[in-house]
Amino acid sequence: MESHEIVLAVLRAAAILMLVMGMLPVAARLECRFRSLGGGAFGRRRLGPVQMAADVVKLLSKREDGSGRGAALAFASALAFVASVGVAASIPFSPGMRAWGTNLSISVCDMRSGLLFTLAMISLWTLFAFVSRLRIYDKRSFIGALGLTSTYFSYFLAMLLSVAGLLIVSGTMDLGEMVADQGGAIWRWNLVRQPAAFVIFVISLCSAARAPFASESCAVDDDASAERTPFAGISAALCALSGRVLLFAGAALIAAAFLGGWQIPFLSYGEGVTWFAGWMPGWAGFAVAMALGFAAMMTKTVLVMALCAWAMANVPRLREDQFSSMGWKVLLPLAMVNAVITAYIVLRIG
Amino acid sequence: MESVLFYIFAVAALISAVAAVTRIDPLMSALWLVGFFIPAAALMALLGAPVLAALVVMVSASVAMVMAIFVIMLIDPKMRQRQRLVRFGKILGVAASGYLAIVMAIAVAAPPFTASPSSGDYFESPATLGRVVISRYALPFELVGIMLLTAAVAAVIIGRREASS
Q1: What's the average model confidence in pLDDT over A15-39?
Q2: Cross-chain Cβ contact B65/A123 below 8 Å
Q3: Taking 60 as the threshold, does the pLDDT of residue A84 lie above it?
């Protein structure tokens, strides 16, 4: 690797991290709004960033509990954070442009199997749900952890199979190619081409993302659902943060995979660039197209975030067995049927 | 750059592998096994096989669950007290490790490997990987599937016998 390539890679990763962090207040605001959580305490309303800085100092200086599980808990919270930021790593937030010898876009890197990588990151969430409860020698919390992971798996499988239909239609695992393939025309978007996959994917992602953090157990004050109680200080903050990061990253994933990503409806990227090139230098035209694409992507992402936050707050919680049977008996067969039908149609037409 | 990353991940993988074998608490052992899989996935990504890396991460997440369930269902909690000093399993384990060490030593002394097949997009593209799995390596793939099925059935049977007694 050349040295300027390394610098560029670091800059791109930092840009995505800053984007994720910058969207955290939006995610928190949406969640508070839909869940009627009050939208922050008194101090945060009055003092704003000062209160936030004070909070960070407070969290950093807090002590861990004396149970001697500090290392495992730190591992768990770091895992949750890495897994949620990792989801955002392979999502292209803007169209690419040729610059400094590479294809530059607002993303960490262009992965040939970006969608698979994202799913791998999401699957790490089970580990968090599990590790955070692992060393408590308490049968109830342990059984709660196992129940949680099993519900998580039932939705994760449905998510994987709904992605199968998506892959058959787009023929690629590269999210950048997938966005380019969908194009500006709305009827080419995967939302229209794969409506069943969209519904299954959104439901399972919301359920799977809610599972590790907000427990599905009916008794919320139950020991089995107390996944955050062992955490203190900065680990607790990281856990709370990760839920919001995943809300943003999951919404961006849905926007990229199903809603055309950075494509602006009814506009063609290539035509736009040539139109801009008519009255400004070529690189500026690319930059403007990139900025517009980024704006479109963020608009879609925020809309999906609102949809997910609304659904998570308003859809009534099911009992654990109902929740599991919804995943295994409804979503999984539906996703399977969807994949088979899609494969049949694609084989027949193409 | 890449060799530095390789050594970091290799050391992390080795440490967690050793820890996974030496822990007394089987649950911690399962956790360390996961800790082994993550740097192993990073190593595969370094070798230019990102699809395999992602798959390894996915598998490692479920490995933790499966190990935990095995630990809860199949390991007798009182077993630790009646541990014998030398067991057949230990002898077998030492023999197997010795064999593995000899094979590794031979492999390092005279590497039987040819050049890395990752030139081109052999491992990079999911399509190529899928095609290879169902054509050239179809038999091992099916055998692994049968093995896993057998293991699942066996686990159910062992678990049931424990419950009824």
Answers
A1: 77
A2: no
A3: yes
Please state the pTM of the whole predicted model.
0.81
The per-residue pLDDT for range B108-121, each reduced to its tens digit, is 777 655 655 554 55
The partner residues of A98 in beta bridges, in order of sequence, read: A103
Say yes or no for a CB contact (<8 Å) between A116 and B55: yes
Alpha helices, H only, A171-281: 175-182, 190-193, 195-213, 233-258, 269-277
Phi, psi of A278 (to 5 degrees): -65, -35
Q: Check pLDDT > 70 for residue A141.
A: no
Q: Is B126 on the interface with A (CB under 8 A)?
A: yes
Length reported for chain A:
350
Cα Rg for chain A, rounded, in angstroms? 21
Distance CA A20, CA A244 (A): 9
Q: Establish if A287 touches chain B: CB-CB under 8 angstroms.
A: no
**Coil, helix or strand for A104?**
strand
Distance (Å, whole) CA A277 – CA A165: 38
Q: Is B160 exposed, middle or buried (0-12, 13-18, 19+ CB in 10 A)?
A: exposed
Which residue in the set B50, B62, B69 is minimally distant from A113, CB to CB?
A: B50
Structure tokens at A14: 């930092």
DSSP run (H or E) holding A98: strand A97-99
In sequence order, what are the beta bridge partners of A104? A97
Are B69 and A119 an interchain contact pair (Cβ–Cβ within 8 Å)? no
- What confidence tens digit (pLDDT) does each residue in A222-262 have? 444 445 566 767 777 787 788 788 888 999 999 999 998 88
Confidence of residue A64 (pLDDT cuts 50, 70, 90): low
- Mean pLDDT (whole number) for A17-25: 86
CB-based contact A95:A288 (threshold 8 Å): no
| Sign of the dihedral defined by the CA atoms of residues A38, A42, A43, A49, in that order | positive
DSSP string of A124-139? HHHHHHHHHHHT---H
Where residue B150 falls among pLDDT bands split at 50, 70, 90? very high
pLDDT at B83: 56
Give the Cα separation of A219 and A231 in Å (integer).
20
Contact A228, A265 (CB under 8 A): no
To the nearest whole Å, the CA of B135 is away from the closest chain A CA by 19
ipTM for the predicted complex: 0.70
